[in-house]
């Protein structure tokens, strides 16, 4: 009788461990997929920004004859951002692009005729809207990634994470030099 009770207790313990393993695994997969989806949402906004930049640069070229170096830096940063492969490289490239755009917007302040151009105004408004969406999407992504990374690191779910080789996801941090948003004043 005692052997029978020990056998049933052993089966119950194995079933509980199995259920826990499945629940922990599914929880990690869910957070990983949410993180991937959140990155996809950021990527949509980054692509929108990439599409706006050439139009903005073209609109500004005629007015900014002496600022070709600034325009070229924006174009080069955009090219790097578009061609970046993995998430970490893309984050680094996007931070460089954000810095280059900040410098471009600061230069715009020196050209009243450029600021008065309706096409440039429209593009600037779209770019500002896109930057706001990127910031919101980045915050959402970082929240999900932090939850996922925490779950992969804390006991006992780290056992499942290590067993199934769940890797840490990269946060989308903004570099220090980029954190200060450039002041854009379109009021004349």
Keywords:
188 residues, 6 helices, mainly alpha
Structure notes:
With 188 residues, the protein is an all-alpha fold. It has one domain (28-178): LemA-like domain (de novo design (two linked rop proteins), Up-down Bundle), CATH 1.20.1440. 78% of the residues lie in helices and 0% in strands. The chain is built from six helices and no strands. Helix 2 (68-83) packs antiparallel against helix 3. The protein is rod-shaped and about 95 Å long. The N and C termini lie far apart (91 Å). The mean pLDDT is 88.
* Structure summary, number of beta strands: 0
CATH class: Mainly Alpha
Outline:
rod-shaped
- N-C termini distance: 91 Å
Using the 3D structure, state the CATH architecture: Up-down Bundle
| Spatial extent as radius of gyration | 25 Å
In oligomeric terms, what are we looking at?
single chain
Return the structural class: mainly alpha
Please write the string of helix (H) and strand (E) elements. Answer: HHHHHH
The structural domain count equals 1
Largest sheet: none
Beta-strand residue fraction = under 5%
CATH topology: de novo design (two linked rop proteins)
Report the total helices.
6
């Amino acid at each position: 009788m005692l052997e029978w009770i020990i056998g049933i207790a052993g089966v119950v313990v194995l079933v509980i461990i199995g259920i826990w393993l499945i629940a922990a695994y599914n929880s990690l997969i869910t957070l990983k997929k949410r993180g991937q989806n959140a990155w996809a949402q950021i990527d949509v906004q980054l692509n929108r920004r990439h599409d706006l930049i050439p139009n903005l640069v073209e609109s500004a070229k005629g007015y900014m004859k002496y600022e070709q170096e600034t325009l070229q830096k924006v174009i080069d940063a955009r090219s790097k951002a578009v061609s970046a492969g993995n998430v970490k490289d893309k984050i680094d490239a996007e931070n460089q692009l954000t810095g280059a755009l900040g410098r471009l917007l600061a230069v715009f302040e020196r050209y009243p005729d450029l600021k008065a151009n309706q096409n440039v105004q429209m593009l600037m408004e779209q770019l500002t809207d896109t930057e706001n969406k990127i910031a919101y999407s980045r915050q959402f992504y970082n929240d999900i990634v932090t939850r996922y990374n925490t779950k992969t690191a804390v006991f006992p779910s780290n056992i499942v994470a290590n067993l199934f080789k769940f890797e840490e996801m990269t946060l989308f941090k903004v570099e220090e030099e980029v954190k200060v948003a450039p002041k854009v004043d379109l009021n004349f």
